[in-house]
């Protein structure tokens, strides 16, 4: 969460203050179960922080002013979510089922 720039706005909504706007990567996992590979969602550190911030907001905890979000006592550089082969992910209208098929 280092290099900060002027906040980027899209239609009046805050998007990011980072120069690097890499987005989430959704792909089939590398699992080798008999049921399928699952789905892997890779997140940047900013996306992990935004997820935590959104979780807090959803639970009626609102932060006003500067804040530092850490994971395991450290700034988070990246994170991920693994969806089991029995699960399914829809990203930008494209479906990925955990069995390894696009829908």
For the residues shown, what is the average pLDDT?
Answer: 77
Q: Which strand order spans the largest sheet, edge to edge or round the barrel? A: 3-4-5
SSE sequence, one letter per element: EEEEHEEEE
Task: Tell me the fraction of residues in β-strands, as a range.
Answer: 35-45%
Keywords:
1 helix; three-stranded antiparallel β-sheet; elongated; mainly beta; 8 strands; 103 residues
Give a quick precis of the structure:
This protein has 103 residues and is mainly beta. It has one helix and eight strands.
Write a structural description:
- It is a single chain.
- The protein has one helix and eight strands.
- The protein has 103 residues and is mainly β.
- A three-stranded antiparallel sheet has the order 3-4-5.
- The chain is elongated, with a radius of gyration of 16 Å.
Question: What is the strand and helix layout of this fold?
Answer:
Elements: E1 4-10, E2 13-18, E3 25-28, E4 39-44, H1 45-58, E5 78-83, E6 88-91, E7 94-97, E8 101-102
Antiparallel strand pairs: 1-2, 3-4, 4-5, 6-7, 7-8
């Amino acid at each position: 969460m280092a290099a900060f720039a002027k906040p980027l706005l899209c239609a009046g909504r805050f998007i990011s203050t980072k120069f690097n706007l890499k987005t989430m990567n959704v792909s089939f996992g590398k699992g080798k179960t008999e049921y399928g590979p699952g789905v892997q969602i890779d997140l940047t550190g900013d996306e992990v922080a935004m997820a935590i911030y959104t979780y807090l907001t959803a639970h009626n905890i609102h932060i006003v002013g500067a804040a530092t979000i850490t994971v395991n006592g450290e700034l988070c550089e990246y994170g991920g979510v693994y969806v089991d082969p029995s699960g399914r992910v829809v990203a930008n209208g494209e479906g990925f089922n955990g069995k390894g098929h696009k829908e």
